[in-house]
Write a structure and sequence with these properties.
168 residues; alpha+beta; Pnp Oxidase, Chain A; 9-stranded mixed sheet; 24% helix; globular
């Protein structure tokens, strides 16, 4: 497993998540259960923060405010890329940032656009992340898996890049 830190880590994480529109946001409910729901990633900024729109009166916001540690899971099954992010969540009310990130596609959830009562931003600051992706392309990975299926062996380890990213 590769270890990435600093600017290199932030840039690699951004490369992976910016092409995957939705993440599963995991919070902890009042009973200690982990609860996940899909969220549309609006941006990963130059500092590595991940931004999402949310309504303030939701369980996800209450849970994120109670226990700031959250998880984000990104999956690109077609590209064979997966990213898991552990981070800290906060609710942000920044009109300029909201204007920068808003698009009419969000009107389905926020009928009055940026004037929707209770609209807010959920910011997740990554602490650590892990990623998995094909080392030599999807076809090599598929061939390795097919070979493993036929030989009843495990796929070759060098067909997948697995990295741990420590965020600044």
């Amino acid at each position: 497993m590769t270890e990435l830190t600093g600017t290199e880590a932030t840039e690699r994480l951004k490369e992976l998540v910016e092409d995957i529109d939705f993440a599963m946001l995991t919070t902890q409910d009042a009973h200690g259960n982990l609860v996940s729901r899909p969220m549309n990633t609006r941006q990963m900024d130059e500092h590595g923060n991940l931004w999402f729109f949310t309504a303030e009166d939701t369980k996800r916001v209450a849970e994120a405010q109670e226990e700031h540690h959250v998880g984000l899971s990104y999956a690109d099954a077609k590209g064979q890329r997966w990213v898991s992010v552990a981070g800290r969540a906060s609710i942000v009310h920044d009109d300029a940032k909201m204007e920068e990130l808003y698009s009419p596609a969000l009107d389905i959830w926020f009928a009055q656009g940026l004037e929707t009562p209770g609209i807010a931003l959920l910011k997740v600051t990554p602490v650590e992340a892990e990623l998995w992706e094909p080392a030599h392309g999807r076809l090599v990975l598929a061939a390795s898996m097919l070979k493993a299926l036929v030989t009843k062996d495990t796929p070759d380890e060098d067909t997948t890049n697995h990295a741990r990213i420590t965020c600044p």
